[in-house]
Design a protein that fits this description.
The complex is a heterodimer of chains A (405) and B (364).
Chain A: E1 4-9, H1 12-20, E2 29-32, E3 41-44, H2 46-49, H3 59-65, E4 70-72, H4 76-91, E5 97-101, E6 104-108, H5 119-134, E7 138-143, H6 146-155, E8 161-163, H7 168-175, H8 188-195, H9 202-206, H10 210-217, H11 220-230, E9 246-257, H12 260-280, E10 284-294, E11 299-310, H13 313-325, E12 333-344, E13 351-352, H14 364-384, H15 399-403
Parallel strand pairs in A: 2-4, 7-8
Antiparallel strand pairs in A: 1-6, 1-7, 2-3, 5-6, 9-12, 10-11, 10-12
Helix pairs in contact in A: 4-5, 10-11, 12-13
Chain B: E1 2-6, H1 7-17, E2 32-38, E3 41-47, E4 51-58, E5 60-63, E6 65-70, H2 71-80, E7 85-90, E8 95-100, E9 103-108, E10 125-130, H3 131-141, E11 156-162, E12 165-171, E13 175-182, E14 191-196, H4 197-206, E15 212-217, E16 221-226, E17 229-234, E18 253-258, H5 259-270, E19 280-285, E20 288-295, E21 299-306, E22 314-318, H6 320-329, E23 334-339, E24 346-350, E25 355-358, E26 362-363
Antiparallel strand pairs in B: 1-5, 1-7, 2-3, 2-6, 3-4, 4-17, 7-8, 8-9, 10-15, 11-12, 11-14, 12-13, 13-25, 15-16, 16-17, 18-23, 19-20, 19-22, 20-21, 23-24, 24-25
Classes of the chains: A alpha+beta (405), B alpha+beta (364).
Chain lengths: 405, 364
């Protein structure tokens, strides 16, 4: 059996600001745009949440709900720096860390359990070190898999430590009273479909078969997904990314998305993140992968093997869009991902297969320009954070378009 | 619905349509085959919404009607039944009772009403051809089509009805296969169709060696009507690249090479290539063609073929797969290679309507 910990910092950005400015402690702190400007809340302290303020809410609304709120700008660089310190603490416990964001990570501690009396003691020590070294509050969930650990970390927030009991029976009993929305992947739409069948709690789900659930949500895969999670089953490994046979990023939409423009925008961001990591590792990719999950929970991947190795954002985006356009996706998308693999350490290939129509032959000068641009963007982002620079719009089309001479 | 049918006849019909069924479809109805008993025939239909296929076989229809059954399961059951006579009756709730000797099966199906109907072709340009000629045309070109999903328009075979000729072309941008033959049609019937590879492969599988074939096309879709079969397919949209511009006007050298000998030599030499070094080299010298490769960590291979050649030496490297493909698709004893230099496209021709253009690999 595995022991997985989900570490989730409590109101991370807001807690960092309260720590750095002790005068703000105990007061509602709201990170994001000022209330008299357009923009949204990026994070809110627990004091502010009492007023109904939450992240992604327009700042104007937050200002109205919480007039005495202390509005502070987002200091992303600073949070990234703190996040790196946090990672160093986690690494004292296990090398198997899967960061989910700046303030959230899975730790697989199965292999190190023999150094500890039990998982609870390990988790308590982790929380204490974060508290003593960083002076920040955190919540921890302990369980035998990622789904349960993540669910548990949320149950006793803030400053929580929740351990899911082991054993199939005990796990089912633990899950039973929780609302279905607690299940990863169950959003408004699925919850509504389930409610039509009088399913409100996980206990209600546990009483149904996979095929019944499949019919309710409209796909067999979705039924299996619900059934497995309702029984606390989740085999996904903690993925550290240190193997680095591939680099990928994905983005789950708050609401299933049909808008091709939103998909393109999401891919733009994903390719930039992947490109940054790829270049930082000093490598080039010869294979690109597009992944998407449709609203019926089915995952699809599409790959393209490249004639020559690439690493520039522009090239990555061009191939990503090419794969996307080749899909004629009809269903709404709940998740989109982009990855690269089959790495080389040089751009030079021993052999090149030129194109009859001269389409894939890269213009040497353009290639060099792209390389310089990426290097400049990478440097800026590393110094000032990821949001220091945004691509205004992009005029890149896929190969398909350029063939339509 | 109720019909009696010979097992072999039923299996024959199912084999023609079932390959269209996509095993990973999201719509349950698309996993099914439509069985329709009518006019003393059994009509079998399958579709993946891009390609639809309908075949008909002889059957003793006792009561007309229709049902759809899970394709893979139905096919497996019918194939395993001991035969020779099968009786199928559909009662209420789309349930098929299958009786064969002492075997009895009850299969739950889905209603015909949910099955996507075959697109109707009230109008469209129509062409008449011989099945066998069209089949070999597709066989000689289809393999060169691209599978790269970023180059959609190349994911099929172009059928260009122009200038009193039918030109079939497939290319993935690195090699191009073309078959051209004269054909009679009106000037207003000139048209370009890009037929998806899946449809082309289904046609290659089911077209006969002779007999009439009717092609009916609109801007969006095409139907192939032959024998007891009807194949209806979506067309790939978009402008096919101007393939004429990549066909070399004339080449310096034209060398006759024994097809089989060259194919076997290239195949053997290719065994010594690696992912990093994939190419094989063709070296034309006085009365000798040498096929070779050298890979640092692996070793080297050399094969010689006797040819009639008196000119200057020429050496050129190709991807062996791209070289073997057309050699395998042809049947002639001899092919003709036209090579200019190591950077220009090479050409393969034969004594039948066929042209293949192949971009050499550049070695650095």
């Amino acid at each position: 059996m595995r022991t997985i910990i989900h570490l989730d910092m409590d109101a991370f950005y807001a807690s960092v600001e309260q720590r750095d400015h002790p005068a703000y402690k105990g007061h509602p702190v709201i990170i994001g745009s000022p209330p008299d400007q357009r923009g949204v809340v990026a994070a809110a302290s627990y004091e502010a949440r009492k007023f109904g303020v939450h992240s992604a809410m327009p700042s104007r609304t937050a200002g109205r709900l919480c007039p005495e709120g202390i509005f502070l700008p987002v200091r992303m660089n600073h949070y990234i720096h703190v996040s790196e310190q946090l990672r160093e603490i986690m690494e004292q416990f296990t090398p198997l860390i899967e960061p989910l964001s700046l303030d959230e990570a899975f730790l697989d501690v199965t292999g190190v359990m023999r150094h500890w009396r039990d998982a609870r003691e390990l988790a308590r020590t982790l929380k204490q070190r974060i508290s003593s070294q960083l002076d920040l509050p955190s919540s921890v969930g302990i369980a035998s898999n990622k789904f349960l650990a993540k669910l548990a970390s949320d149950l006793e927030k803030p400053n929580g430590l929740c351990m899911v009991p082991s054993g199939a029976e005990a796990i089912r009993a633990f899950l039973a009273p929780l609302p279905v929305r607690r299940i990863w992947g169950v959003g408004k739409v699925t919850a509504k479909k389930l409610a039509e069948h009088q399913i409100f709690t996980i206990a209600d789900l546990q009483r149904r078969s996979t095929s019944e659930l499949g019919r309710m949500v409209g796909s067999a895969a979705g039924g299996e997904h619900l059934w497995a999670l309702a029984h606390g089953l989740d085999e996904r490994p903690v993925e550290t990314g240190t193997e680095d046979k591939s680099i990928s990023r994905e983005n789950t939409f708050g609401e299933d998305c049909r808008d091709p423009e939103v998909l393109r925008q999401a891919l733009l961001e994903l390719t930039e993140q992947v490109g940054h990591r790829l270049r930082k590792s000093g490598r080039y990719a010869t294979c690109v992968t597009l992944k998407f999950r449709t609203s019926d929970f089915r995952s699809h991947t599409r790959q393209e093997t490249l004639a020559s190795p690439i690493s520039s954002d522009r090239e990555l985006l061009r191939h990503a869009l090419g794969l996307l356009e080749g899909q004629r996706i009809k269903e709404p998308i709940r998740l989109i991902g982009f990855g690269v693999s089959r790495f080389t350490h040089t751009m030079i290939v021993e052999e090149e297969q030129p194109d009859l129509f001269g389409i894939t032959q890269q213009d040497e000068k353009a290639r060099e320009r792209n390389q310089r641009l990426d290097a400049a963007v990478d440097a800026l982002r590393e110094q000032y954070g990821r949001d220091a620079l945004r691509r205004g719009n992009f005029t890149i089309t896929s190969d398909t378009a350029s063939e339509n001479q | 619905m109720k019909f009696k049918i010979k097992k072999d006849v039923l299996i024959d019909g199912l084999q023609k349509v079932q390959s269209i069924v996509n095993p990973r479809t999201t719509l349950p109805i698309l996993s099914n085959i439509l069985f329709r008993a009518e006019n003393d025939r059994l009509w079998l239909s399958a579709t993946d919404l891009e390609v639809s296929v309908r075949a008909s076989v002889e059957a003793e229809v006792l009561k007309e009607g229709a049902v759809t059954l899970h394709a893979r399961r139905a096919f497996s059951i019918f194939r395993e039944l001991s035969g020779p006579d099968i009786e199928v009756e559909v009662g209420d709730h789309e349930t098929a009772n299958i009786q064969c000797g002492s075997s009895f099966y009850k299969m739950i199906g889905l209603s015909e009403d949910d099955f996507p109907p075959l697109p109707a072709f009230d109008e469209g340009t129509s062409y008449s051809l011989d099945q066998g000629i069209f089949k070999t045309t597709l066989q000689k070109t289809a393999y060169a089509a691209s599978t790269d999903e970023t180059r959609q328009v190349l994911n099929g075979v172009l059928l260009s009805f122009r200038n009193e000729r039918l030109t079939a072309v497939a290319t993935d941008g690195r090699r191009l296969a073309l078959v051209e033959q004269e054909m009679e049609f009106q000037e207003e019937e000139e048209m370009d169709l890009v037929v998806p590879s899946k449809t082309v492969n289904e046609l290659i599988r089911t077209l006969g060696d002779s007999g009439p074939l009717k092609i009916i096309a609109t801007n969006k879709q095409v139907a192939f009507d032959f024998g007891e079969m009807l194949v209806v397919s979506r067309l790939i949209e978009g402008q096919y690249p101007n393939f004429r511009q990549v066909i070399p006007a004339s080449s310096e050298q034209r060398v006759a090479v024994e097809r089989e000998a060259l194919m076997m030599a290239v195949r053997r030499v290719a065994l010594m290539t690696t992912d990093q070094s994939r190419s094989v080299r063709l070296h034309f010298s006085r009365n000798k063609l040498e096929v070779s490769t050298e890979t640092v960590e692996v070793g080297e291979a050399h094969e010689s073929i006797a040819i009639k050649y008196e000119e200057d030496d020429i050496s050129v490297a190709f991807n062996p797969e791209f070289l073997i493909d057309p050699l395998r698709a042809l049947e002639s004893d001899e092919i003709f290679m036209e090579i200019t230099d190591e950077l220009s496209p090479g050409v393969i021709k034969a004594d039948v309507p066929f042209l293949y253009v192949l971009m050499p690999m550049r070695i650095s």
